[in-house]
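Tokens for chain A. Residues wanted.
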């Protein structure tokens, strides 16, 4: 058994190696969770044996030395780090200790705490002299950081000049890459044969550390402030009030920053943020808790490397490392055969993960992945587990694409125009058949046959009752009752839902067919242009290519689908079964949104959001799901949320976006 001294030496060596690889080389060797586990084991040992603390222990410093190649800059006052809490009990203990140090026994109003999301990006210090932005410095080792003003100026959410600012003002906050920008960047990178970014955090850090600001600008980074450093005169008497002043100066704040008066309120907000994090457009890995009053902060002061008046309540780890045991292959409804990682089970983001997406063979090649490697695993959007990187190349077995479909044993061939491999079995492949039927019947697929769920479709296919889309309308109550677990009432409910789906619209029917790359918006475009199914069936490749937003891939897929005799036969059988839609007439709505982009958010009384989208398109507009500088209108209903805040932020920056209410929307449409 190793002695405490040997363990401390070992832990310090490990942590310093990992930290240098992460901060200096931008090449993480272990996940954050693994680093945190060893760090806290080291802290516990040093607490028991303070005489054994090494001067180069990571517990004795704030961060890492700045990367060479940039001008060094000393912070006006040190940028310290925070201690971590990991659960409700830890949070309660921090509050109790803080109040005890203040001579109180409960969290009363005069000792208010402020809770705010802990952004997972790059900490930044901005110094303004007489309102002019003069320096932008990374945190570095807490005392000295890197001067990155040239790249920070590309971030549009950072004011270059502030009216009515104090003579000297240091603003602190987090530079981050929004998830939307991250995914858009990677889509373009892959399309152009370039290496995609690994995650939002590394993308922000790497973007700021570019010598060429044009490269930084391509990443569309953002900035949210979380406080002030040194100032020539106080902005306010407490933290929250100073944040509101910074917002008046033009900085962005997190809308989830709140004041709490009790431990219960703090814990409740912590859990609210855990639930909300997947819906945010930026990564957060915890919640920061700060004593609000600057006077009380000063009274408590600091201990070694952290303030006594603030802490970080970390969320359950969203990224961990494990071993790749093997790779399985699965077939999707489109025939695409994709690799799936078979992992040693690891607990990530609150669930046990034993498999994860590998996307395609190009991704495996990019990662340099082999069976047996140690890899990092994260939950994309808190839902789909994915392999992020190879942490340790210890595997020896190469990963090869299967030659035959794992579902039907048909040959697998590579697409000519993409990195994807596809099963050639088509209508004889169970996964493709059931996948197509599941899509057709789903709400997203547009036919919305609510009682015909995935499991029921798979069971009916297994007994030979569902082999193509048109078979849905040949089902009887007795067919369903023959399956285990289905009685007369539940079986009749399925039949009623199928019959109800027969009345639909042409755009919904087209979307339900599941044509590759042709989704809801493209289906609406086809229906509006061609007016009838017959016109679509007789359209040429050139006709499809001429449609707005249709490229060569979409036009090819649409033409091939509607040229297939099997597909035409299925469509005719569906129509013969009674599926129908009204004729598309020229819209009598005024074209008030012609060539305009409209984003819809919140709830409405006179129509649903889907109906609002239809009205926008009928009035000549394009309905988008996200706010950007190219948005012309935001239709905001009740509980509009973050999209409204973003639109207002764009307005404050001079962007010509208009925010309209439900009543104004209806008035515009006459």
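Reply:
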């Amino acid at each position: 058994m190793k002695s405490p001294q040997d363990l401390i030496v070992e832990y310090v060596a490990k942590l310093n190696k990992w930290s240098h690889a992460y901060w200096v080389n931008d090449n993480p060797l272990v996940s954050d969770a693994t680093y945190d586990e060893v760090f806290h084991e080291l802290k516990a040992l040093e607490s028991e044996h303070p005489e054994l603390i090494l001067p180069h222990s990571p517990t004795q410093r704030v961060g890492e030395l700045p990367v060479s190649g940039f001008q060094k800059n000393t912070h006006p006052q040190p940028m310290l780090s925070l201690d971590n809490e990991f659960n409700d009990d830890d949070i309660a203990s921090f509050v109790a200790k803080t109040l005890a140090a203040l001579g109180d026994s409960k969290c009363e109003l005069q000792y208010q705490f402020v809770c705010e999301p802990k952004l997972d990006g790059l900490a930044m210090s901005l110094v303004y002299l007489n309102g002019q932005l003069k320096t932008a410095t990374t945190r570095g080792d807490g005392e000295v950081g890197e001067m990155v003003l040239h790249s920070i100026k590309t971030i549009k959410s950072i004011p270059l000049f502030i009216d009515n600012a104090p003579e000297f003002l240091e603003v602190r906050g987090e530079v981050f890459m929004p998830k939307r920008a991250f995914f858009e960047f990677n889509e373009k990178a892959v399309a152009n044969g370039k290496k995609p970014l690994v995650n939002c955090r590394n993308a922000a850090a790497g973007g700021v550390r570019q010598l060429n600001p044009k490269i930084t600008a391509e990443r569309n980074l953002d900035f949210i402030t979380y406080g002030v450093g040194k100032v020539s005169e106080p902005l306010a008497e407490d933290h929250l009030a100073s944040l509101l002043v910074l917002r008046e100066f033009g900085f962005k704040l997190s809308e989830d920053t709140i004041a709490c008066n009790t431990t219960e309120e703090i814990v409740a907000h912590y859990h609210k943020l855990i639930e909300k994090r997947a819906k945010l457009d930026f990564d957060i890995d915890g919640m920061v808790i700060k004593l609000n009053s600057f006077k009380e902060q000063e009274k408590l002061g600091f201990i070694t490397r952290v303030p006594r008046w603030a802490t970080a309540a970390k969320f359950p780890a969203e990224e961990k490392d494990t071993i790749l045991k093997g790779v399985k292959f699965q077939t999707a409804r489109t025939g695409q055969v994709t690799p799936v990682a078979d992992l040693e089970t690891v607990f990530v983001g609150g669930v046990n993960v034993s498999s994860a997406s590998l996307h395609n063979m190009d991704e495996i090649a990019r990662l340099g992945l082999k069976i047996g490697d140690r890899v990092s695993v994260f939950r994309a959007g808190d839902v789909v587990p994915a392999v992020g990187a190879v942490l340790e190349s210890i595997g020896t077995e190469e990963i090869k694409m299967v030659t035959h479909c794992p579902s039907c044993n048909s040959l697998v061939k590579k697409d000519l125009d993409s990195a994807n491999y596809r099963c050639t079995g088509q209508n004889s492949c169970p996964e493709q058949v059931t996948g197509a039927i599941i899509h057709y019947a789903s709400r997203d697929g547009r036919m919305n046959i609510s009682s015909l769920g995935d499991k029921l479709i798979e069971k009916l296919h297994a007994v030979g009752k569902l082999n193509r889309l048109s078979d849905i309308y040949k089902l009887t109550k007795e067919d369903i009752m023959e399956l285990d677990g289905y009685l007369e009432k539940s079986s009749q409910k399925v039949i009623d839902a199928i019959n109800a789906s027969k009345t639909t619209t042409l755009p919904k029917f087209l979307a339900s067919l599941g044509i590759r790359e042709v989704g809801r918006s493209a289906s609406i475009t086809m229906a509006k242009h061609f007016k009838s199914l017959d016109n679509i069936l007789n359209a040429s490749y050139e006709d499809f290519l001429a449609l707005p937003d249709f490229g060569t891939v979409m036009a090819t897929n649409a033409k091939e689908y509607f040229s297939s005799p099997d597909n035409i036969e299925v469509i005719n059988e569906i129509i013969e079964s009674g599926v129908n839609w009204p004729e598309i007439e020229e819209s009598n709505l005024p074209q008030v949104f012609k060539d305009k982009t409209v984003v819809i958010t919140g709830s409405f009384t006179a129509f649903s959001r889907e109906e609002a989208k239809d009205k926008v398109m009928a009035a000549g507009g394009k309905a988008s799901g996200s706010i950007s500088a190219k948005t012309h209108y935001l239709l905001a209903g009740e509980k509009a949320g973050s999209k409204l805040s973003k639109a207002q932020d764009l307005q404050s920056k001079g962007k010509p976006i208009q925010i309209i209410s439900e009543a104004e929307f209806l008035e515009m449409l006459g």
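The chain has six domains: 4-60, 72-314, 319-422, 426-500, 506-576, 597-668. Residues 391 and 611 are 48 Å apart (CA to CA).
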